[in-house]
Structures are given as C-alpha cells and as structure tokens.
Amino acid sequence: MSDYILELNNITKNFPGVKALDNANFRLKKKSIHALLGENGAGKSTLIKIITGVYNQNEGKLFLNNQEKSFSSPNEAMNAGISVVHQERNLIRRFSVGENLMLTNLPKNNLGLIDYNTVAKESKKWLDIMELDIDPNTIVSDLTVAKMQLCEIAKALSLESKILLLDEPTSSLSPQDTKNLFALLKRLVAEQDVSIVFVSHKLEEVFEICDEVTVLRDGKNACESEQITNLNRQKLVKLMIGRDEQIIKSKKNIDFTDESLLDLQSINTDLGHKNINLNLKKGEILGLYGLVGAGRTELIKCVLGLDKINSGQILLNNKEIKIKSPKDALEKYKIGYISEDRKKEGLILMHDVLSNAGITVWSNLKKILSFLNDSIVYNKVDPYVKQLEVKTPSYQQIVSNLSGGNQQKISVAKWLASGTDILFIDEPTVGIDIKTKSYLHELIIELSLKGTSIILITSDMPEMISLADRIITMKDFKVVGETINNHNYEEMSSSIMGNIHE
Amino acid sequence: MNNKIPNFVKTNQFGLLILVIVFICIFSFSTDGFTSRFNIYALSRVVALDIMIGLAMMVVILTGGLNLSLGALGVSAAMFGGWCMESMGIPISITIILVLAFGSFLGWINGFVTVRTGVHSFIVTLATMSIYFGFMTLLTEAEAFRKLPEAFTDFGSLKLFNKYISPLLIISVMTCFVLYYIFKYTDIGRKLIAAGANPDAAELSGISVDRMFIYCHMLSGFLAALAGIMLTARIGAAIPSMAGHLGFDWLLPAFLAPVLGGTLLSGGKVTVFGTMLGAILVTLINNGLYLIDVGEFWVRFFLGIILLGAVLLDRAREYFTVKNSIVS
What we know:
The complex is a heterodimer.
Chain A: E1 4-15, E2 18-29, E3 33-37, H1 44-51, E4 59-64, E5 67-69, H2 74-79, E6 82-85, H3 97-101, H4 116-129, H5 145-158, E7 163-167, H6 175-191, E8 195-199, H7 203-209, E9 212-217, E10 220-227, H8 233-241, E11 262-269, E12 276-280, E13 285-289, H9 296-303, E14 309-316, E15 319-321, H10 326-333, E16 335-338, H11 342-346, H12 353-358, H13 362-365, H14 374-387, H15 404-418, E17 422-426, H16 434-449, E18 453-457, H17 461-467, E19 470-475, E20 478-484, H18 489-501
Chain B: H1 7-10, H2 12-30, H3 37-61, H4 70-87, H5 92-117, H6 121-140, H7 150-156, H8 167-185, H9 187-197, H10 199-204, H11 209-235, H12 251-261, H13 272-292, H14 296-320
Helix pairs in contact in B: 2-13, 3-8, 3-11, 3-12, 3-13, 4-5, 4-6, 4-11, 5-6, 5-11, 7-11, 8-9, 9-11, 12-13, 12-14, 13-14
C-alpha cells in the first residue's frame, strides 16, 4: 500500500498535431498540498482535465486510492471525491450561498418543495467547518470576490471531496484574503483529510504553502514530487522555463519636480472616486497599486470618458482637456489603454491577427474615400508584430487560436502601432508564462525609455516594484499614498502595504 | 496536404454554389418550363428583391441585432416614393434620392433608439415595424398609387440579355459588389465589423461603437427602401399590402439569405456573396416547388425547415468561424 491518494502514471495525451502530455507522472500524497507548475502550454490544464474526467488519456493509468479508475465525465470524478475550484466562478450569482452549496442535492419537505430551513442549516455546517462568517441566505452577488472563492471551496467540501484542485485561486485576492485562504487550506489538510493540488503562477505562494512540487515542461515532467525544501526560486524557475530567470530592473533618472505631462486634479467621478490627484511625467512609469476593488481600472475608464467625471480637471501639457471617448483619447490626445481583460476588452477573438493588430491605426491609414486594404495595414503593423515576436502561422490566423501569451502580445502590439504618447497598461501579465512576462517587462521599460509615459496598474507586487518609477497606492477609490520606488522589494512592499492598512 | 485544396472550396459559399447547381439540375429535369425564357425572367425579378432584402437584414445582423421593421420600412419608403411621383409630380431621379434618404432616416430611428436605450434591436424594430406600417396606412388611407410615370414602370418590366434578365437583378448584383468593397476595402467597413464582433474591445480601441451601430441601421433602411423602389417598379404601382401585412412577407427571405449565406447571428461576420447565393437558393426552391405543383402549404413547410436548418448551421458555424475570413 502506498500513501498516495491519487497517482497518474506515464500519462500521454495527443491532440491533433500536438503531444500535450508525454509520459507525465503525478503523485499526490494523502494530506498534502502539492504544487503543479509549468508555463502556459506545458500541459498543466490537460493534466487537470484528465484528473477531472474532462479528457481521457491516450496512454497511462490513473489510480485513486490504489484502484485503477477512468472517469468518462466530470460528474463521475466529482462523485469519486475530486473537485476543481476554477478561476472562473462556478456559483450562480443570483442564488443564495445556501442554495449554491446544496444545489446538487436540495433538501425537500413533505410537499416536495425545497426546505429552506434545512438548506440554511446544512450549508451553515460547511461554512462553520471553514470558520466562515457568512449567512447562508446571503445572495452570492453581494459577497466579495474573496468570499465567493471561499464559498466555492465550501461547495467542494459539501460534496465530500477528498481531493481539491485549486486553479490560480489567489489571482483576484488581496494579500490579506490570500493569507486567510492559506490558513484555511492548511487547516483543511490537517483536520478534514483533504489533499490539495495547487496551481499558481505566483511562486512566492508555492513556497509559502506547498509541501511538494511537480513541474511540467513541454508535456514532460521537469521534476516529480520534489520536496519544496530542496528547492529555491531560481531552481524552480529554471525547471519551469529551462534556463535561468533574468531579473529586470528599470534604471532611470526622472526628475520628479519636472512639469507633468498628464495631470489629474481633484477628480470626483460618478463611480465614487474622491478627490483624486495624480500626475504623470514624460517617460515615467507610474504604478497604481491597490487591492481588487480599489478603483484603479475604474479611474482609468473615467479618464477615457467611459464613465462620468463629475468635477475636477484633466490637464495635458498644462492645458485642460475633455476626453469624451476612447476614440477621442486616441485620435485627439494620443492616449491608449491596454485592457486587463484581453479576451473581452482587448481583442476581437473571432477576428484575425491583422485586423486585431491594426484596429487602432485604420483611421490614420485610410486613403481617399475611406479606402483601406490589407497590405496597407500589414505594412504598418508588421514591424511591431515582429518586434514582439508574436508566434502565429500567418496574419490570417484567428486570434482565439493563439496562446494566451501571444494574444497578450497582440493586444500590446496594436497600441505600439498606434504610436501613443501615453499608455495606460492594466495588469499586463495576468495568466501569462514567465518567459513572455519578462519579455513584456523589458518592453514596457524600453517604451518608457523611448519617451512613452505609462500608467501601470498591476496587483503583482514584484512586477510593480521592478517596473514602476513611482508608486501611487489607492484604496476605496481614493489615493492613499505616493512613494518613489527604490526597487528594494522589502522596503517598498512594506511601505505600500502600510499605506493600505493605515 | 490540405494546402492543395483552394481555400474557396472550404467556404460556406462553395457549398451553397453546389446546392444552387444541384437544385437547378433537379428542377430542370423534373419540371417543364423551369428553363423557359419566361420563367428565368420571372426568377430574375424575384431574386433581385430577395437579394436586396437579404442584404438589408445582413447589415443589422452584423451588429448582433435584427431588423424586424424591414418590410414595413421598405413599403413605407415605397409609398412615400409613390406619393412623390404621383401626387407631387417630382421627377423620378429626385424621387429615388428622396426615398433612399427617407429609408435611411427610418433606419436611423431604429439605430438611434437601439443605441440610446440599450434595448435589443429585436424589440425596438418590432415596435417601429408597427409604428411605420401604422403611420403609412394612416397617411395613405390604405390607397395604392397606381398612376406612376411610365418611364418608371417601364424600367421594371424591361428585359435584358436576350430577354432573359430583369435590370432589377443587375442593380442587386451591383449593390453586392459595392457592399463587398465597403466591408473589405474601407476603414469604415472594418470598423462596422469590429464593432459588431466585440463592442467592448472595439470601443476601447478607439472606435465609436454607437455610431457604427447607427450606420448599420441606416444602411439597412437604405437597402430596404431600395428594395421598396424595386418592388414598386416591378408591379407598376405602390401598394400598401405589397409586402403583406406589416411587411411580413419579407421577413422569411430576409433571414434565410444571410443565415444560409454564412453571416453569424451573433454578429461580427458578414458574407455579402453568401447572402446573394442564399437568396438565389431560396428563390430557386420556392419557384421549383411551385412548378412541381406541390401546393402552397408544402412550399412554406420547406422554407421553414430550411430556416431551422440554417439556424442550426449557424450554431455549428460559430465553432468553425475560425477557418473563414471575416469578409467574403
């Protein structure tokens, strides 16, 4: 008898033209937290989908409690005690917490109607186990993002799951919420006999919480059930990307007493921003740090004219401007915005690479009678697409067929092509592999060195500290602090968190 | 290995073309008179109109919306034209310009209300359908304009190419080329498609999505008015009921042509020549079934089945959009 609850041996999975997994092994010990790591496209999601019954492997065997299993549907896997908590919420937002928890097995009374008292009582039990102070009658959409995440876990527990797969569980959580989540996970492992598979791009978290690590690279094991104590960050990154990580730092001398390029003065908005003052110097990378819900993206959208600014002024080169729409921002003031949500707001997934990369420059390129053909657009955007090393078979390729990293490069390329003076860059590296991430970091620095002024929104503290020249901290739709970045991680992060928790 | 097959063969239009040819063969052999000069001429007059109303619907489907007011709008514009020519004595050429402007204006109302209220165009145009048609009936007192200038009605019965083809068909085909040019080779055409495919992303990329949607509705009104003029020329009079009650007779072909042709109902993809082929196919089947003499009921039955099939095809297509280009 082995003490593994889940074992996958020599798994191979072929897709047309690709070997997504090639003889991969994965062994999950009972009562452990096991990190599954790898870059985008390394085979993590395929492995998870095999464990949860979405895919079947072509070769190899899966053992659950030493018994060979093969799941033909996610439902079977769930019944066997395997639950996934996805990045995307699987809760029904307009139902109450209790209804969501009990959804697959709603208790009924004698008349065959739903017995809401039992729903509340039963679901309270699971919330209590997690020490969650939530009323089961609360409607899910009234919860914070962090609480929703915890409810998902409670839902998985209520299904008597013994294996929890957490896919990037902290991507939308604040550091405090993350800490709470980790404490909870540790307790679940200790008290509830649960084993956890933890997928994350944030390596700091892996070191904080995991016992063992399995790394996939190009569908193969780069390491297998390695003790976390035998590893450090450099070793882990090397395992993931196959070479050493390059640490990038922005080195610039910006005179912060210079005149500002863009100046927001006492801005109050419809969305609730109070008295926002901030200024951006030429060639500066100004970081906007804050927790999810601090109003950073919302502020940018107000500046772009998508929501209403009630009072205050926006000055560009000391002249007051009124931006009515993103079109206005782009065409009149040369201001662009790279969205945090590339799938919904950044790209037109169903269109090809050329029209996505060229969308911002059509207006400038059009000839008489609005004439515009592909080769005119191609000539304009090709240098930028090449510069960003976008990997695509052709310009006619549909963007949704490209990897996340390449999609992100295209949503950046279109703004490079548009030649804006000011760029708002919102969470540029969420869900992106390390290689592309450091590439984008270099690019952002290079852009600012060439004179583009950048406002960078990111919730990734290391990213913020390696890129920004100055960091503005926001909380509850207000500016709560401003710090000149000295690129010392410990000092900066404690000063920023200090601003937030004051 | 796939590279040897030309891309055109893999497209939806190619499949449609094959179907059109197959149906032509079937009807040629199984009926008398399908290939007669009289029937082909009659077909060309019908097809011309179906193409035009298919295009009018297509440009709104591009936004992910619908234009149910299409028939009511087209007839209203046509009645306005009849009034201009018969009651006001306005010259034909100026009347045509006025009618097209009027149609675009009604389309603008559709677009403006849709964009400003954020209500789906399905509801908005359902309402304006009733409003336009009701207003038109009120103003005309349901009377037709039958004394139109001869030069105008003569055009509608003109026969070209050895008396096989109506000039109306040439107008429709030329309109296809113009639209194709707009969508493929102009800045504005690209913006219309981008706005239809993903309004949020388009807006953030500096496109005024609202304006684009209004343009689409105006274009739809313009094309519907053109269809109205063509129908008036064809029957030689402007009659309030010439597209059925509330313009319903236009709706089925208006949907069938673009959907069969490969336009995505969710928006963001147009197929001008697909719509043309779709209209041809629908007209062929309609005409062939009448000639076989299966009876009115079966014709409607088959058209309904085809529409359902086309919608299923649309679902399937969303998965495979991937492989086709955006404008074709």
